[in-house]
Structures are given as C-alpha cells and as structure tokens.
Amino acid sequence: MNTALSTLAEDALRQMQQLHQAHVRLLTSLAPAPGTLPALPSAPQFGHLGQWQELITQSVTRQMQSCQAMMRLAAQPRLDASLFTESLAIQAAVMQRLATQQAQWLEGLQAIATEAASVKKVNTLSKLMDQESDLYARFNALLASQATATMELIESVQISVGYLVAQKEEE
Amino acid sequence: MSNEKSSVAPPLGAFNADLSQSSVSGLSSGAFMTVQLHLAHSATFVGAGIIAGGPFRCAESYRAAAAIAEDALTLNALYVCMNPLIPQAAPNPAKLAEVARETAAQGLIDAVENLAGQRVYIFTGTEDKVVDSSVVDTTRRFYEMLGVAPAAIHYENTLPAGHSIITDNPEDNPLGVNRPPYINQGGFMQSRVILEHIYGPLKPPVERTTGRVLRFDQREFFAGNPRASMSEFAYAYVPKAVEEGAPCRVHVALHGCKQGYNYVNFVNGQPDLENCPPYGNRYFTTTGYNEMADANNLIILYPQAEGTDNAVSQNPEGCWDWWGYTAEDPRSPDYYSKQAIQIQAIHGMLQRLGGQ
Asked: Which residues in chain A touch residue B83, judged by CB atoms under 8 angstroms apart?
C-alpha cells in the first residue's frame, strides 16, 4: 500500500510538472508578440496577466502541497487504508466527469452541425448574417464551456485531494 | 447605493407578531443562509427548512485551499460545499458542529442548545447537479450532532428533483432540471410541507389570497452599504386578517442565487438586458408560501439579495453570503454571526415586524 501511495504521489508530481509546462505555454501565448497587435491600453492587459499568474501559481502550489502531504502519509508506518480507496474513487470520479464533458462536447457539436445543415427561411441579409453569427457564437460558447469545465475539474481534484489528505493528517 | 428614502416603497411596518414562533427556510444560497440565520438567532426560531443547502461555515472547511483567504473561501464553496468529487470530500459535520459550539461559546451566535427542541426540514433532489446530495446529507448529520432529535428532522432525499423549490404549478420547469428559475413542477407545494413540518398541522392553503404583497424599502436595514449586496426593495406577504391586527407568526423565505427580483442573467460577461427580463416576483408570488400564510395567519418575509461583481463584492449571481464575500477582512470573515451584515439586516426586518 505504501508503494501504491508513493506511485500515486509520483504520478501526481509528474502531472503537476506537465500542468506547469502547460500553464507556461498558456501564459506565453497570452503575452503579445512585439509588433503584431495594434496599440492597446496596456494597463488592463497586464492586470489580467497578473491575475492569471497569481492563480496559476496558487494552483501549482496546491498540487505540490498535496504531493508532499501524500508522500508524508505514504511514509507513515501505520496507514489508513481509506486514503487509498478514496484516491481510487477520485480517479473514477474524474473519469466520469471527463466522460460527461466529452458527451456534452459531442452533443453540442452535433446540435450546431444539425442547425448549420438545416435550411431555414430567410428573407433579409441581416437575418442571414444573424443566423450565421449565431452558429459561430454557439461554437465559441461550447469551446468556452469546455475550457471552463476542464479548469473546474483541475481545481476540484486539487481541492478534494488536498482536503482529504489534510483531514487524514489531522486524525 | 444611497441612504435616501425610497419614493416608491414605504418602510416595513409592524404587526402583532409573536417573534418567538418565527421560522425560516430557503433554497440553495438561501438554504445556506437559512442555516446561518437559524444558528445565529436560534433563540428566536422554532424551526427551519433547508432545500439544497450545506452546513454552517462549511466554506471554511479547508483553509489551505489557497494562500489568499478570499480565494480559499470561494474554492471551498465550489468544491467542498457544492460539488465535492466524492462524498468523502464533502464537509465534515462533526468538525463543523464543533465550530458551531465554539462560535456560540464566543457569543457570536445564540447557544446551540436552543436547537434541541426545534424542527428541521431538509431536502435534496437526486438529480441536483448544483449542490450535491452528499453535501446536504452532512447538513442533516450536522443538526443531529447539535442536538436536534432525528424524529424532528424530516429528511427527503429520494425524489428525482433538480436544484429547485418544488411546486404544483404546471408552468414551472420539469422536476429533474437544473436551470433558472429553479422552481420545478413536482405535483406538490414544498413550501406547505416545510411549514407543516415546522409548525405541525396547519389549515390547508387558500384558493384565493386575501392579503397583500407589501413592497418595502430594504436599505434601512443595511444602511445602504453596497457591501451587503442587497436590493433596494424587499417584500412581505401579509394576510388581510393580520393587517387588521390579528396575532400572527413570521416565516422568513430566502430565495436562491439568480432569484432576486432584479436579477438579470449574464451573457458573455454582461447583463443581457436586451433579451432577459429581470427575475421579478416569481419567488414571492408563485411558490405557495402566501396561500399557506393566508390560511394560517403567517407573515412571509422575503428579503432580497442582489448581484454585484466589483472591487467591493464578488457576487455576480445575487446569492446570499455563505462564503464570506461581504466580509471586510476575508482572513477573519464574518458572514455567519449575529453581526454579519446580511444576518443583521434580516433580523432587523423580523424585529420590525414584531414591533421591536
């Protein structure tokens, strides 16, 4: 069981490193390349970038703290078996949520595709523009909701694991 | 928000109310606030109805969630108190019951011993995707640990309801959905079940109400402080007999997020004023409370929360404060005590109704 916990902690550490690399890439993509954007007020942009940095740092810190706590628990001579069961339950819950997200993504795409393929009565250019714009807007909304759901899942895992481990350490 | 008197809403009046027989109920954030109000003033209340709500101060379950206190409270609210990944990651009722006892010992809320003789209705729908049933289950255990007899708790957790208050209005959402207006058709009036559990057998609801929904200026109860995230107006249903002087009891009914009268849904970060009318009076006219009030000489008090999202308060969905967004200092948040801005406001309204 200690070996299994250590493996879980090491896996989590590896995921943390991958997450950190993904966040660095995200931050890099948010920073404008010189000469490619029109002149924009810099204050709001940097303000948001600062918030991204702060929240991502918190996220990575949480992940590291959870890994460290799991390592500490794994090193204890007498171990509560429930943490291992709970870890498996968390993994199962994550798979369930990813499956649900995937289903929602496919459903959303299907609905947009069906709408796009259907012939609707249109009398004016403005109405045609409206309908075409609606489809793009719905696709963007679907993308945004998927991205948000992924972030929520990441945070949810971090908080659940951290909270569970913290409770075990208090016992 | 200004302190000037409203030109369209008079102050809340006083009635012949026996405040020692008061009760409170709520949905969602209203349910979380119901628990807070119930504990803060347990000497005043005889019972509570909690629809899809978690236990007292559950947003403080895991302080280490983030380095910044305000962020930690929000993360707790979302991932421990609403949607824990697994039931074991839900709030810990034993720990929170201990927190409640400590809070009472500090004089911040009434003695928890007051709860022992009270009656509590707790509901969770099996299709609720907003506040997980595992969280509401901890609310039941929380009350039991504070001395409410199991026989005095009506815990309903088998109905396939979404996140909603249930009615028998055919126009309302299907039972199992989780979307605004969060009022779902389930073939019965949940408000009636709540009131009858709290007060015992009551007269059946009237077919046609005799009284009035009074609009009053709510701002005096929070001194117009924008930190309160409460609206200019609030409402109270007063039966005709009560307006004419009959003795009455008061029930406080707390709406959930996105259910305040002036809530407008946000689309792409902006209030969708062009397409989405404000929520309006649905919660305080169609949920069945008024019909029961009329038959049983109850005043139903409907305080109103409002959405704000600025440097002062992050509450875009117009929820009651159960995670500390009104706190002046998030490191020592006060959203749960008798001095908390919203609890003080609601209690002030209750006292006014009783002529105090």
From this structure: 156
